[in-house]
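Async update (no meeting this week)

Hi team, since we skipped the sync, here's where things stand on the single-chain job. The sequence we agreed to prioritize is pasted below, unchanged from the tracker. I ran it this morning and attached the output directly underneath so nobody has to dig for it. Comments welcome in thread, and please keep replies under the output.
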Amino acid sequence: MWSESHLHEPAALRAVATPHAATPATKDPAMRDFLKIERLSKAYTPSKPVFADVSFGIDKGEFVCVIGHSGCGKTTILNVLAGLDSATSGNVFMDGREIGGPSLERGVVFQGHALMPWLTVRKNVAFAVESRWPDWGQAQVNEHVEKYVAMVGLSHAIDKKPSQLSGGMKQRVGIARAFAIAPKMLLLDEPFGALDALTRGTIQDELMAIVRQTQQTVFMITHDVDEAILLADRILLMSNGSDTPQGYVPGGIAEVVVNPLPRERTRASLHHLDGYYELRNRIVDFLVTRAHAH
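Output:
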């Protein structure tokens, strides 16, 4: 089995481990529950919260994707993790400390690249690096910037401005900037959603390579089922709030799917792997029949 349904406590979400990861019994205790979300709720209308009682944990070095229809609250959860929004109730802890606002310990990449148009690639990334390490000299900043720009394959464009870049190149700059500040956690809000399929696939490969190299902890929102299967160790399936004969039921984490595929999977081989279609069909079935989309 590779799923757990209707879970509420963070510890329960680790009851099933991927075949290629350490089990909870053998995992370093310091890596467990690196991020802890406890009974998170968000309500704009008190009687009809968007989501309620959302609890889960993310281990250090784990890649978790969340999928759900528009309106289920997944972006709100990411914004709470980023410190850009506040929950109506509940708590979020990262590395033992409660999140209470934005921090350079959490790098964020949005669907829009959010680059400063008057600065070059080098200076866009350097701005973040200098904010993270204000005591660094210019030579050290430049060396660090060039390393991460090279990591996303943009060394040839390092002194170009955003207006001279394609959409995919701009997103690569955003990824380089996020990784360059060495965040404890990376938050991705559909960063490839506006890109064409070929560009999206290329950047997915680059992201996977960087995450494996840096052992980065990642929380990502996506609408793309194959993207989630390719990238994630676990996939959180969110349901929308809905009116039922018994009354209003808020949205939340309806199911947690543990990815059973080899972690070194690639886009090219994904659909050849045993278990791929069973996994994909389960997620699609949830989205079509059980997510209560508005």
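Quick observations from my side:
The longest helix spans residues 197-214.
The first strand starts at residue 3 and ends at 5.
Reply here if anything looks off.
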